[in-house]
Structures
1.
Amino acid sequence: MALSRTFRNVAWVAALALAAGGPMLVGVGTAGGLPETADAAGAGEPGGTGKPAGTVEPAQTAEPAPDAWPDHSAFDELLQRYVSDAGVDYAAWHANAGDRERLRTYLQTLSAAPVSELQERANARPHALAYWLNLYNAVTLNFVLDGYPTDSIKDLGGMFSSPWKKKLVTVEGTELTLNEIENDIIRPRFREPRIHFALNCAAVSCPPLRAGAYVGESLDQQLEEQTVRFLADPRANRVGDNGRLRLSKIFDWYADDFRDAAGSVAQYVAPYLKDYPVDTDGVRIESNDYDWTLNDAGRAGS
């Protein structure tokens, strides 16, 4: 029974990847994704429900009209309220029961959306990508808030299951992990390297969470803004005194995505970095250490 269910889930993810002409690439797993050091941090299953904290089930309401993508305005308002350059004000959000419920209600709306049907419609690509980016970030926030206070999202894992491998949300009847949303749906279907600056893993070294939701109508501009912002941060990316590139480990973990887009990692980042050497051939790239401390605004600078 468990094996047949696994095959059904794989087929469903494949169907999402194929929708609107997307290529089928299922089971990417951690290859090119989060490092084994991140995925190795497991998690115990709290409570007696058999579901990890932060799990979101679809609302028991009528599904939205199949010609309308979910409204992201509620999520946008929450992000504007709690996200700043310092990070996420988890303490204030955690203390506000109404806003925690608003986040869960938003996730239930995404969970109930007929995604496969919507993705088949004309000009669906930017709206579909905005949907999956918002879903990933909202699930991450909900998961952290349910486990707050914590020093790191990795601490919400345990010995046998990492946060990114927990079944945290149900979409069209299929339970999904953060790892599956990113590596089995977003990366293979959209092949857009800038998503790495839009997805937020709730860590200090992660590209900063945007203080607003992604929307299909302006998604390209939003992704470009995220890319410029992250690559302009000298703490994460810079040209060293020795002429070598010092880059976030994101460019190592997902190197293939950037090579596919620009030929090499160096050529991808060149237009965004100040004082970049003109010759990108043979340039040495070194990775900065990755800080998994929670991106908690209340602890910024402490």
2.
Amino acid sequence: MKKQLSKLMLPKKIGMLDSGVGGLSVLNALIPFLPQETVYFADAAHLPYGQKTVEFLINRGIAITCFFESLGITTIFVACYTLSATAVASLRKLFPHITYVDLLPLTIDRALAVTKNNRIGVMATQATINTHIHQRLLSEAVIITINTSATLIEQPCPDFVTLIERKASPQECQTAIDEYLTPLLTADVDTIILGCTHYPFIQKLLEDQAPHITFVNAANSLLNFTERTDISHIHFVTTAPIEYIEQAVEHFLVKDHGCMVSFESRKRL
């Protein structure tokens, strides 16, 4: 998957989809490589995705894909691992002409590359954990790499997204960090996959708690795109009130992005 993604030539217009602000961690990593037009869709009226049914998530994926299609967008970065785990396979069958760029497999490749004791933890939403998609991807990767000793330990983190979305203080996050991190440390993992694009926004807090652990996320695995030469325009769309996405961009998007930005609320989508 890594080689395929690294050779991807971005079209002039792309879409990016997340339930809320999490995908901004991916967008931050892609800033130097963005094409002329990027449409970021935050489905914040339906947060948190991690507590929704598979049927609901597929239906949201269909609705948002149709919205992107109406804009002439046929390449969509799925910047939500819960959607990757539950809906992307169905969406690819329903929209075979759409390219869904699934970032989740990159985290498995990266974790296998950096682990030293072959004990890998995953922190993710409950919906993602329920699919055991990381375990399936690990099994496939192990066959390819002939690394037969890798072990995966899964840890649901149901409160992280809510805490990050409301920009909770480090002190407010600490109880949840202790609860979710302790079982993985007890299991002697040396590498932890951040299995939700929201989680990189608290990665520094996790690293402070466990400085000997290597934390992996898709954003730090995005490599070898062609850097942009023109000013890029990012159009932010949300199903929440427009103030939600304006404040999220102000808080979470890198400050020196050098892009033109605009905002839109589509509450009925």
3.
Amino acid sequence: MSIGNLTFSKITLKNTFYCIINQPITVSKRYIFIRTSTTEQTPELQLNDIVTTFGLTEYNTIEEQDSAFKENSKRVEFEKLKKLIWDNKVSELYVWDLDRLFRNRKKLIEFLQICNHTKTTLYSFNQLWLQTIQNVQPPFNEIMFDFMIQVMGWLAEEDSKKKSNRVKMAVVKKDDKPTVSYKGNRWGRKPLSKQVVNKIIELHNSGCSIRQIANQVNIYDFNNNGRKISIGAVHKTIHSFKAEKVSI
């Protein structure tokens, strides 16, 4: 006999009626979180390392493509993961590295405290020592965990700062000249091609709005990946064009 998702089995034993409730199989509460910073990075490599190392067969995957250096970016997929954790729908969380969660030490510690509060066990491919700490008997496991999280978070932030400083040291800036790398390559965003600029001006002169122009003009990166030009870039191009006309 069935009622909704519940299944009832009738067993007769010594004239006594027993009702056994067979609960439906619940969705796995094991999650793998994958974050890549650029489109060139492959999430499959992170996933393969995690699945192979921890011997996982059943799991849910949440993928995010976002830079670790953008402080104000909206991490939609990561926020979904946090909500699942707060709703106690995640019992095990696997990541390739702790910096896949956060590079910022303070934010990383805050997230780990959430995991600790919701009894979510965290595993990391590059920080296998987490398993060792989780096997320590209480209350020393909590003390060791807090200490090591502070240290690892600090190291992650220091590593980010070092990379940022190396980038800054490789930049050469001279007055009235474009910023270039130490190799002499121009630094910053790739300028719009003359063809794109001419297309923007042509559409502008025909009466198209900035938003309409942005929907019609495509730009391409160094790997020939195309996308729509931003409204800001269109506005800047038109503004420069008008300024040049005034100065003539």
4.
Amino acid sequence: MLTARNAGSRRVVPTSAGNRVRALPSVGTYCRMAKRRSKSKRVQSSGGWRETSHRLVQGWGGPQGTTIRLARPEEGPAAVELLRLSGEEPEPAVLQGLEMGLVGATLARALDHGHDAILRDLAVVLQSPEPSWGSLSASLGLLLVAVDSTGQVVGALLAHPPTSFLLNLAGQGLEQKNVFLGHIAIAKIKGLAVAENSRHSGIGSALLRRCREVYWQCGYELLYGQFHSDRGLLPSFYRASDFEVLSENDGVDLWVVFGQRVVLTNESGERVFYRWRRHSG
């Protein structure tokens, strides 16, 4: 059995600079192409209505007159600062991805073209003799913001594959193919924050809902995160969105993802919350 604690913000994710990072198209490039092809915000498929990259970029109506959408490049610093004030520090690879317009790029393509879009971008990384885990995690990441009628960022949610956790498992013998599989099946909600004067209005729940919808549509199986045990209001908040909240000593069995016994555990003094797609309504 492989058991690894979920790495906190102190762990630095390896990144690779150069052509391997630039090989993945930015979200801005893709969405400009998608906008020329179609301005539909939702499309109908055999499985019902599906969101599109246009909707992700333009946004959904949120509580208190806000708009929930993918963060624009100029909103990145405000969103990151809001997350930092809540005690969350985005990993260096994600910050680099924000600057390069990579965050959310692959997910945007997957909303329009399905899970195969993720596999194509994964193939780009696989072709490299030294896989750029940082750029892959950023491209599969999601920075959502809630902006008010004045354009001010009043809420932010950051999620991305748990690269540090997966590399930790690789060091314990997890095969590289399963490291890649983890990147396209598991996403961690790294941080969720709402400005003090906008709290208790449903913005946090709205951000969480849209994050879940995007990752589920892109074929992900598990969303999870963690919080300090002394945050007394958070268990009820996440349970209200149908997440399971574990005690400090419990973990999540990832057999359904890897086909072997792998357990995700928490950092000391923290609790894990999680939700499987198969349990979603």
